[in-house]
């Protein structure tokens, strides 16, 4: 019985995976699913999976071609053409929400987009050493005395020597009763990948453009976390000036000033030098904008990218979100200068339906 249930569960999971693959573009382009994310699971709405069964007609209606009616009259039960009538009492179609792990989603995403497995550079893992309490000893410093174990040992001794008096429950530990915590130094792997998200929040970037960035960054996060033990994330927003912010501020800030993209690139370099030494970390610098930039700032951007930023990262990705207010010119500047550079990926995102292709472009090099 257990084996049959396990087979059924495995078959159900395969059906769910098939449905997700079938509608992957739809799931990728809607942000509601991100809001249903738990710690390690995402709730995905699927149509009810019906078991095939026969449907029988009404009884007592005679055979084929019998009964009253005129030529051309529709057969079978119908409804009024004008839509009038009382509320129905029949069931409608319900959606089933299925919890899918982020690891499974990453696997499906990688299979459907044919994303190559990432080959990390630098150290395979960063190791953090910490002291961990592992046992109890009869000797040790007083600062590590285990009081519960000490009094428990003293109580056992007094009971064994018949010196414990329930009417006067006084427990006095002696030196032989003392117990102390012991420890050993253990090594734990730490995150060795970092994502630095940069986004233009000037007046030309509207709410829809930022929602597209939010959805795409969620799926990029999901894929990269499946490739590394852990990931550190930093967020930078910029208009004419750049600032490091938290995730909530990153997706909900809007400014009205102009745009100087180079300010974000310089701040990203400062963060990398401060927190992520290039010889140890796998760094992903991802920038999203509508392509609008102050005229004389393009040269500064190219200088920072060529001389410092691109040589220090696994991947520099630029995603340009179409906006009715942005010039859309910066993507061509990057393509003209970095078209043949292996660790630079440039994509255009015209709308939500373009998220899937953009992810494939940004992550398709396996960096």
Automatic annotation (TrEMBL):
<dbReference type="Pfam" id="PF04285">
    <property type="entry name" value="DUF444"/>
</dbReference>
<feature type="region of interest" description="Disordered">
    <location>
        <begin position="57"/>
        <end position="94"/>
    </location>
</feature>
<feature type="compositionally biased region" description="Gly residues">
    <location>
        <begin position="59"/>
        <end position="70"/>
    </location>
</feature>
<dbReference type="InterPro" id="IPR036465">
    <property type="entry name" value="vWFA_dom_sf"/>
</dbReference>
<protein>
    <recommendedName>
        <fullName>DUF444 family protein</fullName>
    </recommendedName>
</protein>
<dbReference type="InterPro" id="IPR006698">
    <property type="entry name" value="UPF0229"/>
</dbReference>
């Amino acid at each position: 019985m257990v084996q049959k249930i396990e087979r059924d569960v495995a078959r159900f999971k395969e059906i769910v995976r098939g449905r997700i693959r079938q509608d992957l573009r739809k799931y990728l382009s809607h942000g509601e699913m991100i809001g249903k994310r738990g710690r390690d699971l995402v709730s995905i709405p699927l149509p009810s999976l019906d078991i095939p069964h026969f449907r029988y007609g009404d009884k007592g209606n005679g055979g084929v071609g019998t009964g009253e009616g005129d030529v051309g009259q529709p057969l079978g039960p119908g409804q009024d053409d004008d839509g009038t009538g009382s509320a129905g009492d029949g069931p409608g179609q319900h959606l089933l929400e299925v919890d899918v792990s982020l690891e499974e989603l990453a696997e499906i995403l990688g299979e459907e987009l044919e994303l190559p497995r990432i080959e990390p550079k630098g150290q395979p893992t960063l190791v953090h050493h910490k002291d961990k309490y592992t046992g109890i000893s009869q000797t040790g410093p007083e600062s590590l005395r285990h009081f519960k174990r000490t009094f428990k040992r003293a109580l056992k001794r007094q009971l064994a020597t018949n010196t414990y008096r329930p009417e006067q429950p006084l427990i006095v530990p002696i030196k032989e009763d003392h117990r102390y915590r012991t420890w050993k130094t253990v090594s734990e792997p730490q995150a060795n990948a970092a994502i630095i998200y940069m986004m233009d929040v000037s007046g030309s970037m509207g709410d829809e453009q930022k929602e597209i960035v939010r959805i795409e960054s969620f799926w990029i996060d999901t894929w990269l976390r499946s490739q590394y033990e852990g990931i550190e994330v930093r967020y930078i927003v910029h208009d004419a000036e750049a600032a490091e912010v938290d995730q909530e501020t990153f997706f909900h800030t809007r400014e009205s000033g102009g745009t100087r993209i180079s300010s974000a690139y310089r701040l990203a370099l400062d963060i990398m030098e401060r927190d992520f030494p290039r010889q140890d970390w796998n760094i992903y610098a991802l920038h999203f904008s509508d392509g609008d930039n102050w005229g004389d700032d393009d040269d500064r951007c190219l200088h920072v990218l060529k001389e410092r930023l691109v040589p220090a990262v696994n991947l520099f990705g630029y995603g340009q979100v179409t906006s009715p207010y942005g010039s859309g010119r910066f993507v061509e500047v990057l393509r003209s200068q970095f078209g043949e550079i292996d660790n630079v990926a440039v994509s255009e995102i015209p709308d939500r339906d373009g998220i899937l292709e953009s992810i494939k472009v940004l992550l398709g090099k396996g960096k």
